[in-house]
């Protein structure tokens, strides 16, 4: 019988996440995926300001490359200003 590997653990200690006190303190990125009835998959990039809980961007496409994500973040920075921190799970 083959044994499965153990859970990978982060190296070092993690800093506690501070509570955002003002807009643009922290933006959160997340990817959501689903499929339409004919089986084609699509992904949605969501960007949320953690202080105001405002959805800053929803970008839907069949494929979201790193370059596309960077381009959307650059566009948001031009419109809203640079956040102090960007987090992703």
Structural commentary:
It comes from Bradyrhizobium yuanmingense. InterPro entries: Integrase_cat-core (IPR001584), RNaseH-like_sf (IPR012337), RNaseH_sf (IPR036397). This is Integrase core domain-containing protein. The chain has 89 residues and is of the alpha+beta class. The protein has one domain. 17% of the residues lie in helices and 34% in strands. It has one helix and four strands, in the order E-E-E-H-E. It has a four-stranded mixed sheet, with helices on one face. The model has no long low-confidence stretch (mean pLDDT 92).
Could you name the key traits of this structure?
RNaseH_sf, 1 helix, Integrase_cat-core, single chain, 89 residues, alpha+beta, four-stranded mixed beta sheet
Task: Give a short overview.
With 89 residues, the chain is an alpha+beta fold. Helix content is 17%, strand content 34%. It is built from 1 helix and 4 strands, in the order βββαβ.
> What is the domain total for the residues?
1
Nearest-integer average pLDDT: 92
Q: Low-confidence parts lasting 5 or more residues at pLDDT below 50?
A: none
Shape designation = flat
Strands, total number: 4
Widest sheet, order of strands: 3-2-1-4
Estimate the helix proportion, in percent: 10-25%
GO molecular function, one term: nucleic acid binding
Pfam families: rve (PF00665)
Domain Integrase catalytic: 19-89
Organism: Bradyrhizobium yuanmingense
Topology (SSEs and partners):
Blueprint: E1 26-35, E2 41-49, E3 55-61, H1 66-80, E4 85-88
Parallel strand pairs: 1-4
Antiparallel strand pairs: 1-2, 2-3
